[in-house]
């Protein structure tokens, strides 16, 4: 199963799809999500999920980005159906976001007509521009520079209009910029019984973990032992993330 570029999106299509995952990454690693999040996304694809990873470039207008990534996603799904690559008439669709990608899925679910079986929101981040982008205020010394919508406006939009009922929120125990707790309170006020929060070992960059090719030599040395230990440590956090996502999507299917 190889990545294919379709209408600007990077796509994995397994032989017998069980569902569709629309992935949006973090602000500064979202331009090539099939590379920066390769291990995690390919693991989801190997379990039978069509993965559509939509690249984007961060600007101050996050509503415009949300509209664009949704349009690109829908055009890609349409192309998959037209080409026969995706034969099933209906498959449940899940939004999967990391960091800023969470905010975009929340805006999509609040402001745009979209159907989702659920959203998976990892390491939600809703910082102001001056905190998220170093030296941003120096771009304009006369007027303050801020994202649209601002963090406060974003929370208000979610509180009033977010309509995706089933949500999994994941935070890592060593993530200093995570804002999942405040988001959880907002979503639970709307859909109290449908919001799950999990705290996993890891950091804000855990979803970016990559495959480590470590091949022991002809004779097993202490360096080989160290390499295998390091690989196990990296994969321990990644595998827990993978399992949490898959179990939430389908509790009856082994991850």
Helix and strand arrangement:
Blueprint lengths: L3 E3 L2 E4 L6 E6 L8 H4 L1 H9 L2 E5 L8 H22 L9 E6 L1 H12 L6 E5 L6 H4 L18 H11 L5 E6 L7 H11 L4 E6 L21 H28 L6
Parallel strand pairs: 3-4, 3-5, 5-6, 6-7, 7-8
Antiparallel strand pairs: 1-2, 2-4
Helix pairs in contact: 3-4, 4-6
Strand-residue proportion:
15-25%
CATH architecture: 3-Layer(aba) Sandwich
Can you count the helices? 8
**Total beta strands:** 8
Helix content: 25-40%
Structural class: alpha/beta
How would the global form be characterised? globular
Order of helices and strands: EEEHHEHEHEHHEHEH
CATH T-level topology:
Rossmann fold
If you had to describe this structure to a student in words, what would you say it looks like?
α3 packs across α4 and α4 packs across α6 (151-161). The chain is built from 8 helices and 8 strands. The protein has 255 residues and is of the alpha/beta class. The model is unreliable at 223-227 (pLDDT under 50). α7 links the parallel β7 and β8 (195-200). The two termini are 19 Å apart. The protein has an 8-stranded mixed sheet, with helices on both faces. The chain has helices at 33-36, 38-46, 62-83, 100-111, 129-132, 151-161, 180-190, 222-249, and strands spanning 4-6, 9-12, 19-24, 49-53, 93-98, 118-122, 167-172, 195-200. It has a single domain (4-211), classed as Rossmann fold (3-Layer(aba) Sandwich), CATH 3.40.50. The chain is 40% helix and 16% strand. The protein is globular.
